[in-house]
Amino acid sequence: MDVETACSISKRDEKLKVAIYCRLSEEDRNKQLETDDSGSIQNQKAMLVQYAIEQGWEIYCIYSDDDYAGADRRRPEFNHLLQDAEARKFDIILCKTQSRFTRELELVEKYIHGLFPIWGIRFISIVDNADTDNKGNKKSRQINGLVNEWYLEDMSDNIRSVLKSRRENGFHIGAFALYGYKKDPDQKGHLIIDEEAASVVREVFTLFSQGYGKTAIARMLNDRGIPNPTEYKRLQGLRYKQPTAKNSTLWKYFAISDMLVNEIYIGNMVQGKYGSISYKTKQNKPRPKSQWYIVEGTHEPIIDRELWDRVQKMIKERAKPFDVGTIGLFARKARCANCGYVMRSSKNRGKHYLQCSNRHVAKDACIGSFISVDKLEQMVIDELNRLSEEYLNKDDLERKIEFAGNLQVQKDSILKNIATYEKRVAELSKGIRELYMDKVKGLISASDYSVMSKDFVDDRDRLERLIADSRRRIEELGVKLEVGDNRKEIIERYTNLEHLNREMVEILIDYISVGKRIPKTKDVPIEIHWNF
Fold first, then answer.
1. What is the pTM assigned to this prediction?
2. Residue 292 in contact with residue 271, Cβ under 8 Å?
3. For the packed helices 446-483 and 396-440, what is the interaxial angle rounded to 10 degrees?
4. Max avg pLDDT among 176-190, 206-220, 412-426
């Protein structure tokens, strides 16, 4: 029986079935190739298989997660193990230590002390003597879980501190070098130019400076078969983020747009645009620019300052105020049903149209959703009239209950936002005070204090305006609750319309999904997502 590669099914039903779970520790990686199991995994398997044989158990399957942290709940084999445990496919789970199964106390309680006994699963870890059949060592297992939880938090704080220091000193700490650069093999944290990709970056900046649009530049690169950054790294055998979207090997408008404003191309290290939510998850969220780490002159620039300044000036000049006219009636509201991209406006023979912004980047990039603004406007009006009639036919009591419930949900959401804003304002105020004390102590100059505190003050002022606006909205909701459900009047106001305007669209519509025209009927399927 080859327990390394396959699951075995014993014909002797009297034997207990054991599932072996192994995980590579973050501290002891020593793999030579991506396709190889680490020595740590091999040692775990050998130890656990030997123990199972000595106990006379039948090995049902070996589940092995390599290169996964103990706090990562997305471990594929870990989740496979839990699914099989719930299906009662084995009797015992065997690990080297409890921490190999999980380092989270929450999961220890949920599975080891909660669901496993319900499912009839015994949990055993050899080194730390955890055994759910031994009721006397439950407290020991809980202490192990608590110690592992502390370990995770302390390790996270230490890592954050080290990364913060390296970012502040201009060292590159990302897993991937920006397109146009590669990691310096002789100096950790330093970037050097990848000339093949850098030539494409220079071309993009030059073409834009000559008046070519971002979509046009993407199409030109795709027509010449130049791989986009992700595909280029894959072809070069470099580390890259696994693409998930359709047509992910093509250049897109947003790739060009992001490239043209990235300061890394002029030799400045820019990091910390995203921050993790918690040490228990790998999810990240955007951070305000005031919290970014920007260090000038850390590596050789690909774009010279003159060309950079010219491109930034052109981008600023091309930025248009929000269009509230006919062309912008559905601006940023219409999306392609096929690829999800926001549809862009165009004009032909005096008529305005919306088309998928992805259809022009290359042949067969998208089905090419396309609809005239006039036709979409009429379809929205027709659907609005139908929904209005349906709503107005509802019983008054039913409408009032629905109305009050919706307002309460809105109020709870706004109150939650206010609490978040106030917490951030307190943090910013503390940061301003600390900067001021650093200036008083002579740790920073008055000019540095002025520059560093400006972003803090601007961000705090913005949040305080949001808090004031949110409180006004709370008051408005209170008035609405006192006055009662006036949606009947609002909906009646939007029935029997001949035309829409931008204000109506903003009030009524979240977004519209537009499909491809049906050849026989020439109808364009749409799906309207309303704000009410």
1. 0.40
2. yes
3. 160
4. 176-190
Q: What is the dihedral of CA 397, 398, 404, 408, to 10 degrees?
A: 150
Which is more confident, 355 or 198? 198
Residues 6+ apart with CB under 8 A from 529: 509, 510, 511, 512, 513
Q: Are 158 and 279 in contact (CB under 8 A)?
A: no
Q: Judge residue 25's burial from the number of C-beta atoms within 10 Å of its C-beta, 0-12 exposed, 13-18 middle, 19 or more buried.
A: middle
Give the integer Cα–Cα distance in Å for 96 and 22.
Answer: 7
Q: Is 376 helix (H, G, I), strand (E, B) or coil?
A: helix
For 3-44, the pLDDT digits (tens) are 444 444 443 446 899 999 998 865 444 444 444 455 577 878
Q: What size, in residues, is the chain? A: 532
For β-strands 343-348 and 351-356, DSSP reports them as: antiparallel
* Secondary structure letter of residue 263 according to DSSP: G
Please report the pLDDT score of residue 160 as a whole number: 58
Residue whose tokens read 């310096």? 184
User: Residue type for 239, please?
Assistant: R
- The span from the CA of 223 to the CA of 218, in Å, is 9
Closest CA to 470 of 530, 419, 532: 419
Name the packing angle between helices 195-209 and 214-223 (round to 10°). 140
Please provide the average confidence, as pLDDT, over all residues in the chain. Answer: 76
- Report the C-alpha gap between 429 and 527 in whole angstroms: 45
Instruction: Give 399 or 393, the one with higher predicted confidence.
Output: 393
Q: How far is CA 171 from CA 109, 142, 238, in A?
A: 41, 40, 20
**Tens-place pLDDT, residues 213-267:** 888 888 889 888 899 998 888 888 765 555 444 446 788 888 898 899 998 998 8
Helices (H) and strands (E) counted in the chain, each on its own, are 16, 17
CA–CA dist 260, 217 (Å, integer): 12
Q: In what order do the strands lie in the sheet with 526-530?
A: 334-336, 509-514, 526-530
What CA–CA distance (Å, rounded) separates 318 from 218? 18
Q: What is the pLDDT of residue 303?
A: 93
Whether residue 305 is predicted with pLDDT greater than 60 in this model: the reply is yes
pLDDT at 23: 86
Please give the backbone phi and psi of residue 472, each rounded to the nearest 5 degrees, phi first. Answer: -65, -40
Answer for the pair 532, 506: CB distance below 8 angstroms, yes or no.
no
Q: How many Å apart are CA 405 and CA 415, to the nearest integer?
A: 16
Alpha carbon distances (Å) from 280 to 14, 107, 155, 191: 40, 12, 12, 30
